[in-house]
Amino acid sequence: MNKHIALKSGILVFTLVFLMMSSQGRLPHEKINYFPLSGDTLSCLILPNNVLGKNRYSIGYHYQILKEFAKAQQCALRLIPLADSVSPWEAMLAQNVHVMITNTEYDSVPEILKGRFIAGPSLNNFEHTWVLLQEDFDVMKAMYTWFNSFKHTEQYAGIASKFNRSQRPRSPSHFARELSPYDDLIKKYSKEIGWDWRLLAALIHQESNFRMHVSSSKGAIGLMQVKEVVAQRYGVDPIFLYDPEQNIKAGSMMLKDLHRTLRDSTMGEDELIKFILAAYNAGPGRIEDCRNFALSQGKDPNNWEEVSGIFPLMSKKEHYQGEHIKIGPFRGNETIAYVSGVLERYQLYRTFTD
Length: 354
Fold this sequence. Notes:
Helix content is 51%, strand content 10%. By secondary structure, it is α/β, with parallel strands linked by helices. It is elongated.
C-alpha cells in the first residue's frame, strides 16, 4: 500500500465541496464578518525552498496575502521556521501552527495522518495552497470567504503583480521600475537613517537576495539577517523578525547606530560607509580591532584600503595575541568581499534606478 495519500485526493476533495456549498448565493465581492482569530495570533509555517519550487518570492507573496487576512481578522501574524529535524506535518501537529503553505501537485500527507488536515483556497498558478488542521475548520472557512472577496480587489492585483514580476530575468530596464518587492519599505527606512535607498537595497541583496524567510546557522534571520539579540536591542520583538518591515526596521536601526559609533571628524563619508558595511558584516568590535591594529602598524585607521590591507597580519599569532586585537584572529576575506559586493551592486542600482 502506498505510504502517502496525495494532497489533491486526500484533503482537497473535502474543502472543494465546502467551497461549492459556501459560495452559493454570494457575490465575489461580498464581505463576510466572521472573525475566529480576533485578538489571537495567526501562525504560518515557513517551508524550505524546495517545497515551493524555484520561485524565490513565494513566501513573500503568501505572507502579504496572509498579512491582509490577519488584518481583516483583527489578529497578529507570526511566521515560524521549520526545523531540519522534523517534517512539516509533524510541525503542524506539535506546534501551534495554523497554516502551512504547500504544493498540492508534489506534496503528500502521510497515510497515518489521513483525515487530520484540510486545505484552504488555492492562491496562485503554482499549485500552492494553505493547509490547516481539521480542528481549525472555522479558520479555513474564514479564509475561503475572505479570499473569495479579496482576490477581486486592486490590492490583491498589486500584490500578485509585484511578486510575480520579480521572478522575471533582470535587465537594466527592469531596474528603473523596481529592485525588489520590498522597495517601499526600503525607501521608508533608508530615509530614517539618511541613506540612499539603493545602497540599503544593495546591502539587503547581499544579505538575503531579498528572501524574507532565510536564516543562517549563526542565528541571523530574514532580509537583513538580523540576530534576535540585535532585534531586542532596538525594540523589535524577535518572534516577528521574519516580517519584512520589522526586520528592515531592526537592521536599519543597527546601521544608524554604527554610523554614530564609527563617525570620525577626519573620516570622509565614502570611507565611513565602507566601515559601516564592514561592521555590519563582521561586528563593530571586530572593526574596532582592525582600526586599532592598523594604527599600530602605521596605517591610517580611517582609510578602508589601508585597514583592509593589514587583515592578513591579523591571522598571525604574533599579532592577534597582541594588545591591539581583543577579539582574536581575523582573516577578513569575507568582509572585504562583502563590502566590495554591496558597493558594486549599489553602483549598478544607481546607474539604472532613480
